[in-house]
Input
Amino acid sequence: MAQVYFKSASTPYAKDALHLSIKKLMEKISTIEKGDIVAIKLHMGELGNIGYIRPVFVRKVVDFVKGQGGKPFITDTTTLYGGHRGNAIDYLMAAAINGFSISSMDCPVIIADGLLGKDEEIIGVDGYKIAVAKAIAEADYLVTLSHFKGHGMAGFGGAIKNLGMGCCSKAGKTWQHEESKPLYDESKCILCRKCLTFCPADAIYEENGKIKIDYEKCKGCGACTVLCEQGCFYLTNDIAREFQKRVAIAAKAAMKKFNGKATFINFLLDITPRCDCCSFADKPLIDDIGILASSDAVAIDQASYDLVCKEAGKDIFYELHGIDGTAQIREGEKLGLGSREYELVEI
Ligand code: SF4
Ligand code: SF4
Output
């Protein structure tokens, strides 16, 4: 049974301040050795999003890694769709605005899949060949920091999603998305025509006063499911299942070279409906819960999900997106990525 350490968001005294818990949590699970090159993987937030992990927590991780004799770098990968993170230059500018730079973090910020998202290492796993971002594949140790929140395609996003999608180059991301193309509900359309500009694949077009999707061009990126304000583009649970399965396979590939030298921290703070890729962040769905840490990506996501459901009194992510997020956890366990059985240890 995996151990998941938990620090409650309740902080009545200065000694309980949440940023102080990072060192205590890392001490429970870290196996960083002197000289290890340590990739600290997180989503540094789309411009305009305010739900991403606060820089003060990340700096505490950097300080801990240095204290162990490791060589840390902060990292993420480029996106498939529009926005301010599609290449390394745009991403580094957005990251600096959001609080992540060499001066604030006291370590380099490196976009792991290179300038244009093509720097990758092909890693074979269970018969699949997955394009993992090179700088992550080359590191000695991986610390995965995940903001736990809702996600329109995966149900929720946590450690598995951060590993699978977040650690891959553009080619790896394309493979995960390509079989999960949205459906279109014409009855909701008010013909505002906004979708004609936001599709990164130029797959949405107008014909005889009606909006259509060219499925040959569609990459399944899911941007239209977020950006159409009428909710015309949508996924079903069945379509999402293939996406979730591929995310779990990619997560296993990202983990393959670390052979246990990995640590996961999930932040159950500002639990927003959608992911940090959105250029906005709605009000949190529920009160802050706390911070979890484990060396098991499956266990930490299961524990995070259970705590959110307990706090909400229901599966709030399913209610929002109509997608069973637990499928990615079950796929992860099936692939041997970790265990859904866990013991929650409060610190
Ligand atoms: S953005 Fe939505 S409502 Fe507007 S034209 Fe496209 S499908 Fe219709
Ligand atoms: S149609 Fe929608 S899912 Fe397909 S590429 Fe365009 S924005 Fe992405």
In short: DSSP finds 13 helices and 16 strands in the chain. The domain at 2-178+235-346 is CATH 3.40.50.11440 (Rossmann fold). The two ends are 18 Å apart (CA to CA). The mean pLDDT is 95.
